[in-house]
């Protein structure tokens, strides 16, 4: 079965045949009500084909700039109960969502088919009313997103003196219902769960999976309406859908996974969390875990599905947790370079990282120079003005994030074989900075293997997009100026968070983009190697090609001899409030001396304009504010786009009838017998003498021409002081040293010219 979007001229015969059989013959509708040529021309048709035969149709007609009416949904009798009508309605909803996202849909649905529309996300606005002449009971239904509903209500408020039927979606008695529905959507008191299916693309997600998801959403909506007998079916369906999405997410490289599988994971997680949050028996703890897992594993636009807002609302309902803090999270004062020698011993080729102070007069010039040349630079006290540096510590974050779930690394280094990841709440992360692997009694392992498994493992919340998951923390962060060299839009800067206890390390690795590392709390040690020495750091093969095999704390010269031959290894200590510029492709190793809270700002991939003005602050925006508009603002297209259902413009010139006489040309044709026109120049007779040349040739033995007058005058002027007695006595000797050689040079040139 194939569904096509067509105009009436492309499908007139097939569509009229379907509507005649369904509405006129089966439902006895008057024929004069079925056809209206002007409406047909303005509409867009969605037609289902079985081979070359049209078997189902749907009409979408614009009634206003931001409102479409869905009409004439029909399927031939022998092709019903195959979900063809459902697919047609779904295609129409996808079309509106993608092509005109600020538009809403309303329809007059027959009562017998009302439940099918409700299962797809439509809301019932009116009581049952009887259509004139057909005597078929109908109800008014409506569908839209919070954005499109806001646009619709705004335009309706601007109207006056317009009369509609009582059952019309634009009638004054119906508009308050739509306003109340929009308010409930914004407060997440309800959500249009049944319409989430339109966000999955058919080319990636198969029809079987999509239909299972539609059924899962319909059952979830019934559960919210009070039918709790469907709870077991909902659990089974959600588990199966998450298994499918999880299998796709863990196949191949993470960046190569299609976005539709991340969307599916996020959508299922949103529905699960919403049911636990708004169900009869609210379970806030499991609801927040599922929502956070959807944020970590899935990805979807917040304006489409507000899963971040849902997680924040659930977290606000949970009581504060005062979890015990592990000793490895204890805070110490910042360390100086002398005190860190016991933690990171200098190598024979170690040199300090170039640094400057934020208060230095030449700080800005040095920063610009370092970024232009691609060399690391440590800027002392560069971010002391950042609110996070003054406010953030482990107690503050525990209060803000106690029940939120994050991916935590387990192990000393991610390049080790026993390294792994685990999703755990922030309270569990703080309480157990050392994680013990549990081993079953029936496991057949040796005593030494068991002892190795029971060793304490370090926990590290590394390179996590915490600000995307918990947006309200951005109000305490100020993006450094250096990140705006390539783009002035703050949304183009990736912001990652690093939280780890003492004695945690990140092995020597490299990143493909420029980084600005900011230490918020604690002290970190860095060891860096230039990209020119990449071959000497022995990178891993395969997926860990950006990580070195060398233990740079204690390098083994026997196993890695080239590393000891590197000319310079750069060491540095970064304290709270300091910033370190890490150029792209530079190898860097990190070691945590005490509890560390760090922010990493990754610059965009493209170049636009340079900017080094005042600091750009992430001002306290609402947790779920709409994204800022791009800078600079995009220029409007020219010419302006026309509405999708606008009538075609008339041609500039009316077509001439076939029988019309040809228009006369601007120049009258000359008769064949006419004489040729005279040319501008008269031809010369063949016997005419040739014209003389511009200059006459000189005879072979002619006398040489006299030298030009300016040359003679210059020779006299140069030789005059030589032969005049008074000037010869009074003139300085420098005059003779200049005039005499020049005079003889000119005389020699004249003689040579005369002789030749």
UniProtKB/TrEMBL annotation:
It comes from the Eukaryota. GO terms for molecular function: acyltransferase activity, transferring groups other than amino-acyl groups; histone H3K36 demethylase activity; metal ion binding. Residues 622-705 are annotated as: Disordered. Keywords: Iron, Membrane, Metal-binding, Nucleus, Oxidoreductase, Transmembrane, Transmembrane helix. GO terms for cellular component: nucleus. Its cofactor is Fe(2+). Residues 459-618 form the JmjC domain. The chain crosses the membrane at residues 707-723, 735-755. InterPro entries: Acyl_CoA_acyltransferase, Cupin_8, GNAT_dom, JmjC_dom. Gene3D superfamilies: 3.40.630.30, Cupin. It is found in: Nucleus. Residues 622-661, 685-705 have a biased composition (Pro residues). The keyword Thylakoid does not apply. Residues 1-148 form the N-acetyltransferase domain. SMART domains: JmjC. Pfam families: Acetyltransf_1, Cupin_8. This is N-acetyltransferase domain-containing protein. It comes from Caenorhabditis remanei. The lineage of its organism: Eukaryota, Metazoa, Ecdysozoa, Nematoda, Chromadorea.
């Amino acid at each position: 079965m194939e569904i096509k979007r067509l105009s009436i001229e492309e499908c007139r015969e097939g569509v009229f045949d379907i509507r005649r059989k369904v509405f006129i013959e089966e439902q006895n509708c008057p024929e004069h009500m079925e056809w209206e040529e002007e409406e047909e021309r303005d509409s867009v048709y969605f037609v289902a084909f079985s081979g070359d035969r049209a078997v189902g149709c749907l009409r979408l007609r614009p009634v206003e700039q931001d409102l479409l009416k869905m009409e004439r949904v029909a399927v031939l009798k022998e092709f019903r109960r195959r979900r063809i009508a459902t697919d047609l309605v779904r295609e129409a909803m996808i079309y509106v969502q993608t092509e005109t996202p600020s538009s809403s849909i309303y329809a007059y649905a027959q009562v017998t088919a009302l439940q099918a529309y409700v299962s797809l996300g439509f809301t019932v606005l009116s009581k049952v009313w009887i259509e004139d002449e057909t005597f078929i009971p109908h109800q008014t239904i409506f569908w839209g997103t919070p954005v499109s509903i806001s646009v619709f209500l705004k335009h309706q408020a601007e109207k006056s003196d317009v009369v509609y039927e009582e059952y019309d979606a634009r009638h004054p008695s119906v508009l308050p219902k739509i306003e109340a529905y929009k308010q409930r959507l914004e407060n997440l008191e309800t959500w249009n769960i049944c319409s989430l299916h339109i966000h999955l693309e058919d080319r990636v997600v198969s029809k079987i999976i999509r239909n299972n998801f539609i059924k899962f959403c319909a059952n979830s909506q019934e559960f919210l309406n009070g039918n709790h007998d469907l709870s077991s079916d909902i659990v089974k369906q959600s588990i199966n859908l998450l298994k499918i999405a999880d299998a796709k997410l863990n196949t191949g490289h993470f960046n190569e996974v299609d976005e539709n599988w991340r969307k599916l994971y996020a959508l299922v997680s949103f529905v699960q969390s919403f049911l636990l949050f708004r169900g009869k028996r609210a379970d806030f703890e499991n609801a927040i875990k599922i929502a956070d897992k959807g944020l970590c594993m899935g990805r979807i636009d917040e304006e489409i599905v507000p899963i971040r807002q849902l997680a924040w609302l659930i977290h606000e309902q949970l009581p504060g947790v005062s979890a015990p803090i592990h000793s490895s999270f204890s805070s110490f004062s910042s360390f100086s370079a002398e005190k860190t020698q016991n933690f990171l011993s200098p190598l024979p080729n170690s040199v300090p990282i170039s640094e400057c102070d934020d208060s230095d007069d030449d700080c800005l010039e040095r920063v610009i120079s370092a970024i232009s040349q691609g060399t690391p630079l440590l800027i002392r006290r560069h971010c002391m003005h950042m609110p996070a540096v003054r406010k953030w510590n482990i107690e503050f974050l525990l209060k803000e994030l106690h029940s939120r779930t994050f991916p935590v690394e387990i192990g000393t280094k991610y390049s080790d074989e026993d390294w792994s990841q685990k999703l755990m709440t922030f309270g569990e992360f703080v309480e157990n900075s050392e994680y013990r692997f549990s081993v079953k009694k029936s496991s057949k392992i040796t005593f030494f293997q068991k002892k190795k498994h029971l060793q304490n493992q370090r926990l590290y919340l590394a390179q996590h997009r915490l600000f995307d998951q918990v947006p309200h923390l951005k109000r305490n962060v100020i993006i450094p100026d250096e990140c705006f060299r390539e783009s002035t839009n703050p949304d183009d800067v990736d912001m990652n968070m690093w939280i780890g206890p003492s004695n945690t390390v990140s092995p020597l690795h490299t990143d493909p983009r420029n980084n600005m590392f900011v230490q918020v709390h604690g002290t970190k040690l860095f060891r860096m190697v230039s990209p020119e020495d990449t071959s000497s750091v022995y990178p891993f093969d395969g997926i860990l090609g950006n990580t070195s095999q060398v233990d740079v704390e204690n390098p083994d010269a026997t196993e890695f001899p080239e590393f000891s031959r590197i000319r310079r290894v750069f060491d540095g200590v970064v304290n709270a409030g300091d910033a370190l510029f890490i150029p792209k492709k530079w190898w860097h190793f990190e070691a945590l001396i005490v509890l560390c809270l760090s922010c990493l700002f990754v610059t965009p991939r493209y170049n636009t304009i340079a900017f080094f003005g005042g600091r750009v602050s992430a001002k306290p925006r609402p947790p779920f504010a709409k994204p800022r508009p791009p800078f600079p603002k995009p220029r409007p297209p020219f010419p302006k786009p026309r509405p999708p259902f606008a009538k075609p413009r008339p041609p500039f010139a009316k077509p001439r009838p076939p029988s019309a006489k040809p228009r006369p040309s601007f120049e009258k044709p000359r008769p064949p017998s006419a004489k040729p026109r005279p040319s501008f120049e008269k031809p010369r007779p063949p016997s005419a003498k040739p014209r003389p040349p511009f200059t006459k040739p000189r005879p072979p033995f002619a006398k040489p021409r006299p030298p030009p007058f300016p040359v003679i005058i210059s020779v006299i002027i140069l030789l005059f002081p030589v032969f005049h007695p008074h000037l010869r006595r009074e003139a300085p000797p420098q005059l003779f040293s200049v005039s005499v050689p020049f005079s003889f040079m000119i005389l020699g040139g004249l003689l040579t010219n005369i002789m030749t």
